[in-house]
């Protein structure tokens, strides 16, 4: 166990009670789950509450630019084979949301926590994790987050000497640089589809050579480490070379990569790959992502893509032409207000599909699609877009707050 199970102090108990009350009021007022405001209230009353709530748990932290919510869910399902789990399954991944999640886990043995990239080092200090999973780093929320090389450096400094087992993606040079300061790293060959943030060496700034799946710097010698877990098609190879089939209800290569990393994490806690992977099959959707819903007598699949790497992965799993597509982009605080990233996305991959565009920044997206030479319609809202779509299941792709807007409107 991560620590003893001493009861919370009176101050911590008061903070938990006040936080739950604030969350309940917020939820009753229709302002979401209330987890963030509840956590803020609790931490204001007891700044050390996160540490107190984590002391009886074996904690896993999961951080990345893409895939951390899904991977957190997959790890949680796998670890339930070994005992009760508490997790921030809805993705409230900053200290307030994490505190709220852990406050509900007094009887849990394991904590599986998604952490926003910016807060990883601080949350690691407070929770003393047994395992940290690092999946990828790419450009995202350009007006809020640090440049990827700077973020990798902050991770490297913050995790230096950690006692946790770090499960890290060997195919992402930025992740390898961040994890290399840790004394105990398990390398996973999970792949890297989006490479445009990893052509320069994070160690010396030289140009990385990337022949096939390998990579290395010819100037300083920084290179891809040998992985002990490998994603190989529909299988994950464990450190002994045994191949275990990956059967998921979640679509796409990216989710197979998430499953491979999750199996490596589960093994840290003694859960065998076969058991871990079988349990992952139970996950059908993650906070509404990948759900197929019926709206206005049409089937719609809801897909989240919040940065260039995410859009690239999403394009690889949507139905083939002429399946209709609705694209929705906002630029609110949770998205990042800078939409220049739209120009990094190869929208020509949508050629041959009828496209409707909605969202706060539908005109920004329309300009991008026009430059890409695609035909599309700009619609006022999802209702109009659905009416304009020809027959067939509608693939609906949205960034973060646009996705939440869609879920509320279509009743998911």
What tags apply to this protein structure?
single chain, 412 residues, alpha/beta, nine-stranded mixed sheet, six-stranded mixed sheet, 17 strands, 35% helix, globular, disordered N terminus
Describe the 3D structure.
It is a single chain. The protein contains 14 helices and 17 strands. The model is unreliable at 1-5 (pLDDT under 50). The chain has a nine-stranded mixed β-sheet, sandwiched between helices. The protein has a six-stranded mixed β-sheet with strand order 12-13-17-14-15-16, sandwiched between helices. A two-stranded antiparallel ribbon has the order 7-8. The radius of gyration is 21 Å and the shape is globular. The protein has 412 residues and is of the alpha/beta class. Helix 2 packs across helix 5 (95-103). Helix 5 links the parallel strand 2 (85-87) and strand 3 (110-114).
Gist of the model:
This protein is of the alpha/beta class. It has 14 helices and 17 strands.
């Amino acid at each position: 166990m991560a620590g003893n199970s001493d009861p919370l102090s009176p101050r911590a108990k008061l903070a938990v009670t006040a936080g739950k009350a604030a969350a309940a009021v917020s939820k009753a007022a229709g302002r979401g789950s209330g987890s963030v405001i509840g956590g803020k209230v609790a931490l204001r009353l007891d700044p050390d509450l996160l540490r107190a709530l984590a002391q009886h748990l074996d904690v896993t932290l999961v951080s990345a630019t893409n895939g951390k919510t899904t991977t957190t869910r997959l790890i949680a399902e796998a670890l339930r084979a070994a005992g009760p789990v508490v997790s921030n399954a809805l993705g409230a991944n900053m200290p307030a949301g994490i505190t709220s999640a852990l406050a509900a886990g007094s009887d849990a043995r394991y904590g599986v926590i998604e952490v926003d990239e910016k807060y990883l080092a601080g949350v690691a200090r407070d929770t003393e994790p047994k395992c940290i999973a690092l999946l990828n780093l790419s450009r995202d929320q350009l007006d809020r987050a640090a440049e990827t090389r700077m973020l990798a450096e902050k991770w490297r400094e913050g995790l230096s000497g950690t006692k946790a087992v770090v499960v890290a993606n060997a195919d992402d040079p930025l992740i390898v640089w961040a994890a290399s300061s840790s004394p105990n790293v398990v390398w996973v060959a999970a792949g890297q589809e989006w490479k445009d943030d990893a052509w320069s060496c994070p160690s010396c700034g030289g140009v990385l050579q990337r022949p096939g799946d390998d990579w290395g710097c010819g100037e300083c010698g920084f290179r891809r480490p040998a992985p002990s877990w490998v994603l190989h098609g529909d299988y994950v190879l464990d450190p002994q070379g045994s191949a275990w089939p990956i059967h998921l209800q979640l679509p796409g290569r990216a989710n197979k990569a998430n499953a491979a990393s999750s199996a490596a994490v589960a093994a840290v806690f003694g859960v065998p790959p076969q058991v871990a992977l079988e349990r992952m099959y139970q996950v059908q959707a993650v906070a509404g992502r990948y759900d197929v819903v019926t709206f206005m007598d049409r089937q719609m699949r809801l897909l989240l893509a919040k940065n260039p790497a995410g859009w690239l992965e999403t394009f690889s799993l949507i139905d083939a032409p002429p399946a209709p597509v609705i694209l929705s982009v906002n630029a609110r605080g949770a998205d990042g207000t800078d939409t220049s990233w739209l120009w990094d996305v190869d929208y020509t991959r949508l050629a041959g599909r009828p496209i409707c565009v909605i969202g706060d920044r539908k005109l920004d997206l329309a300009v991008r699609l026009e430059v890409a030479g695609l035909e599309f319609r700009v619609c006022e809202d999802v209702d109009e877009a659905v009416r304009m779509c020809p027959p067939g299941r509608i693939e609906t792709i949205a960034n973060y707050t646009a996705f939440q807007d869609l879920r509320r409107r279509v009743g998911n």
